[in-house]
Write a structure and sequence with these properties.
Length: about 250
């Protein structure tokens, strides 16, 4: 396919898969249970943070986190004191109740000092989404480097593609008109967003000639975003739906 044919193909697939009918099998269904802005963004962050592995397992584990919070994420975070052992036992792969407690404590601090959107403010030295993610990571860690929990907060400065945080930002920023993403945050433009790059979207991008780099890292992300912006500079990450849908539903 030439450039225009590939754009038409990706536009068609993006429109096909950005559809609420696919929410039943996607972890984004968990924050869709809520209507309050803060509830949505807290649940979306926690869901995205554990979004690796089987999608049904992610949905199950995210539902367990919602249960721990009494289905009132914002109120729970604002008043968080401690996890009660036993009643609050949690584990999803390598993310356990110690990590969850760390996230609750960090979110408590963040919501008492400006909120989650503020934590993704522009960085003084690092431009774009990379800098915003670095700012968020600094807010969450608050000067601490706890080895077991720090690994759940991606670090683009070490060439991580930050797939889960880029997915969370897509959920928060892209318009809600099609009933999938939320469009809650206006301080970040859709044009700034980066693709939630993983092995599946990376492989599909290579098959389509959008990516040549073999590793699925931040350098690969920069390359693929150059390709996607050539198709749509205003909303390049809409093509996440195309690349993901081709693999998940069509075994492309």
């Amino acid at each position: 396919m030439n450039h225009e044919e590939l754009k038409d193909f990706l536009d068609f697939k993006a429109a096909q898969y950005e559809n609420p009918q696919f929410l039943s099998s996607d972890p984004i269904q968990i924050p869709h249970r809520y209507s309050k802005k803060e509830d949505i963004e807290i649940m979306a962050l926690l869901t995205a943070t554990i979004a690796w592995g089987n999608r049904s397992s992610i949905i199950k584990s995210s539902s367990r986190i919602a249960e721990i919070m009494g289905d009132s994420p914002h109120d729970y975070v604002l008043n968080f004191a401690d996890l009660r052992s036993g009643k609050s036992r949690f584990v999803h792969r390598t993310f356990n109740e110690d990590d969850l407690k760390f996230f609750f404590n960090a979110l408590n601090r963040i919501y008492h000092t400006g909120g989650l959107e503020m934590a993704f403010q522009t960085h003084q030295e690092i431009t774009g989404i990379k800098g915003r993610i670095m700012n968020f990571r600094a807010h969450m860690l608050n000067g601490q480097e706890i080895s077991r929990t720090s690994k759940h907060l991606s670090d683009p400065s070490k060439n991580s593609a930050a797939k889960r945080l880029n997915m969370f930002l897509r959920w928060m920023v892209r318009p809600s008109a099609k009933g999938v993403d939320f469009g809650l945050w206006k301080s970040i433009q859709p044009s700034e967003l980066y693709l939630p790059l993983d092995v599946h979207t990376g492989n599909n991008a290579r098959k389509l000639g959008l990516l040549t780099r073999k590793q699925d890292d931040w350098k690969a992300l920069e390359e693929i975003m150059t390709s996607l912006r050539s198709f749509d500079s205003v909303d390049p990450v809409k093509y996440d739906f195309a690349l993901f849908g081709l693999g998940a539903f069509e075994k492309f």
